[in-house]
Amino acid sequence: QECASLSSRKRVHAGRQRILDALRLSQEQLLDVKRRMGEEMNRGLAKESHDQATVKMLPTFVRSMPDGTESGDFLALDLGGTNFRVLLVRVRRWKRRSVEMHNKIYAIPQEAMQGTGEELFDHIVHCIADFLEYMGMKGASLPLGFTFSFPCHQSKLDQGILLKWTKGFKATGCEGEDVVTLLKDAIYRKEEFDLDVVALVNDTVGTMMTCGYEDPLCEVGLIVGTGTNVCYMEEMQNMELVDGGEGKMCVNMEWGAFGDHGELDDFSTDFDKAVDEHSANPGKQTYEKMISGMYLGEIVRNVLLEFTTKGLLFRGKLSERLKTRGIFETKFLSQIESDRLALRQVRSILQHLGLTSSTCDDSILVKEVCSVVACRAAQLCGAGLAAVVDKIRQNRNLPELKITVGVDGTLYKLHPHFSNFMHETVRDLAPQCKVTFIQSEDGSGKGAALITAVACRIRDAGQR
């Protein structure tokens, strides 16, 4: 009998590992991801292939980093998820690290996210008015930087056409429109104050700027949070979408859409397909759905469903809770994987999820599933980043490149192992690049203000 139970245990273990193996990537596969990302980057930069490319490589019109002479008071807006922030940022000349900030966070109600564009922007302007009053600056006119973390096509720094909403936003009448105009129109309707909208900023660019303020070697910005994206300084001569071949410009890659034309099909699993089918944007943001915080919990839940259906977990009992989309929040992934967590604490998280009959063995397996899913995400992200830093190295014909990447996002900052797996992958796949990672302090707020400050400095110098 003992032999029988041992062999059934072995069979169960083998069954579990077979399912998990689909989520494990080899060095060859990761190199393949890096190569394909590099190809897609070139397609996005070239005029003739840009329209077909999944990685859009959008010009941001940010051409220089802070030099320390910037000064003044700036407003920054930050819209990129379910919360919206208004900030007052005071930058003082030559005091490189002295940026004084005040900010207030406002919720964006579901009806504003999914109603009309006018409602959304009226809500935003209402929040700005509240903030100015809160700061005792009612009616003030200040230069403003607007961090708008959705894909936009920019033809200058203070203009951006929204290409498509992501992250659950669906406000009508915005796609195909200039976001700065939508904001200005709402300010005009309010008739309370006037603001000089100087820069429309993507959060990755803000992240790069904030870190560049501290470290001049920082030329890449990476976000790994609810969504994921990268920007970096590209040579103007490679940017066929923009005239003028000298110097560099920051490119917003919009790399979350990598894979939308099948480039990642070889690595995609049935779990990924299930997550995609039930998402707000099926068939879109393929790479992002394999990496970012908004989706990892759902991948884990789908794996656990498969295990349970096959009798390999929770004694084969499917609870209603486990069938519910979105219960497995990404913060649970970080908590479950925390090395300080005893298995009984994992069990208490499972109980919170309504999985009351879980055993110690179940807890071990859930922890392993979380670990495999997060590791794959970090490695995929690292493979993409390896393509970026290697391209910068090749652009400059260097045998070795020293570069800093500024990083922001909750998944990167809070997950106990994500950053290590990612760093290791970049080291393995881009051995000729010596990459330092620094965490950004508030790229989307402070970063937007710094971009505005740099733009004002250059504008003022041009007027003298």
Looking at the structure, the CATH topology of the domain at 72-213 and 443-453 is Nucleotidyltransferase, domain 5
What is the rounded Rg?
A: 23 Å
Mean pLDDT: 90
Give the termini separation: 91 Å
Given the structure, what is the number of helices? 16
**Percent of residues in beta strands?**
15-25%
Please, could you describe this protein's structure?
A six-stranded mixed β-sheet has the order 1-11-10-9-12-13, sandwiched between helices. With 464 residues, it is an alpha/beta fold. It has a domain at 72-213 and 443-453: Nucleotidyltransferase, domain 5, CATH 3.30.420.40. Helices cover 46% and strands 18% of the residues. It has helices at residues 2-21, 27-45, 47-50, 110-113, 117-134, 179-190, 203-214, 270-277, 286-291, 293-309, 330-337, 343-352, 360-395, 410-414, 418-429, 443-463, and strands spanning 58-59, 72-79, 83-91, 99-107, 143-148, 152-156, 159-162, 196-201, 218-224, 228-235, 248-252, 401-408, 433-439. The model has no long low-confidence stretch (mean pLDDT 90). The longest helix is centred in the last third of the chain and has 36 residues, at 360-395.
